[in-house]
Amino acid sequence: MTNALAGMYAALLSGFADNEDLDEKRQRNIVDHVLRQGLKGLYVGGSTGESGLMSTDELFEQQAVVKDATNGHETKLIAHVGQPSLRDSIRLARNAEKLGYDALSALPPHSYRFTPDEIFHYYKALAASTGLPLIIYEIPGRVGRESSVAELSAILDLPGVAGIKFSSMNLMILSQLRSKHPDSVIYFGSDETYMTGAIAGANGGIGSTYNVLGKLYVAMDEAMSGGQIERVRDLQAISRTYVERLFEVGVMPGIKLSLRHLGVDCGPCRAPFRILSDAGRKPLIDFLEQPDVKPWVS
After folding, report:
1. Would 49 be classed as within a structural domain?
2. C-beta pairs of 120-124 under 8 Å, 24+ apart in sequence
3. What counts of helices (H) and strands (E) characterise the chain?
4. For the packed helices 86-99 and 116-128, what is the interaxial angle rounded to 10 degrees?
5. Which of 43, 165, 187, 256 is the catalytic position?
6. pLDDT score for 217
7. Of 137, 187, 194, 217, which one is the catalytic site residue?
8. Distance between CA 149 and CA 137 in Å, rounded?
9. For the chain, what is the domain count?
10. Does 282 fall in a domain?
């Protein structure tokens, strides 16, 4: 179950200016902060990065900025290229390949209720469009239904498809995929329950809260590999509590507030995301200042 892409990745945030334009300096600030946390790599241009609120041209620019900011670091870069249009997805994929990214990923097409056959052929075309390995994505909450093992397995068998980001809580499907595809990388996408995904067969994680608690997730992954289950539970409890706080105020605004509290000038979220009120800020800041949390964010 070894795979060069396996490991823990931050679903990278986007840095915006105060007027919400993409801001290169703030993007670099975020990258620099995340690189110090010892993660395997960065997942660039995904939902955590507010890509659904960005144009394709902005995503081209972001890919270039992040690649330049990571030069000299042994950091794997996965470019999320899933767009409403397959043509735009392929354009982003080829740009990432040209820049030297390590892999691609894409949400399944989700603008309409596409059939399993249409989703299969979407991924087939995208995988064939470059020489980079492709990570597919199972996220029932975005597409409105759960994919079957047979549907996902058929896509994983396509040439050029290296693995899956699995953001469903149906761990039976995850464990079946691991059994059928022992050489594929399976990233678990639920930060607050990563340990359950790892037990079921995931050999990596991609998450929003890794931007803030990256060191903790690296330690959790190492403890899981070493069979230190009690330590994994303790670390997972910190992760779960943080996610609970974020759910109270909004995940992306809450993560950006967290980074600003830690001294990272990352800018705001784009509208229609809202700026947190003072009442919303206090529980997050209190959490980050807890004695058992502070070592993981310092």
Report:
1. yes
2. 120/151, 120/154, 120/155, 122/86, 123/155, 123/158, 123/161, 124/155, 124/158
3. 13, 8
4. 30
5. 165
6. 99
7. 137
8. 13
9. 1
10. no
**Residue 187, domain member (yes or no):** yes
What pLDDT score was predicted for residue 1?
Answer: 41
The list of the chain residues with pLDDT below 70 reads: 1-2
DSSP assignment string, 212-244: HHHHHHHHHHHHHHTT-HHHHHHHHHHHHHHHH
pLDDT at 145: 87
Residue in 24, 63, 7, 36 with CA at minimum distance from that of residue 262: 36
Q: Where in the sequence is the domain holding 214, given as residue range(s)?
A: 7-226
Binding-site sequence positions:
48, 206
Residue found under tokens 């067969």: 201
Question: Can 165 be counted among the known catalytic residues?
Answer: yes
| Amino acid identity, position 86 | L
Q: What Å distances lie between residue 221 and 40, 96, 103, 191, 249, CA to CA? A: 11, 28, 21, 12, 27
SS3 state at 9: strand
Task: Please state the residue numbers annotated as binding site for pyruvate.
Answer: 48, 206
Active site residue 180: no
The span from the CA of 89 to the CA of 94, in Å, is 9
Pairwise CA distance, residues 90 & 79, whole Å: 12
Return the pLDDT at 276.
75
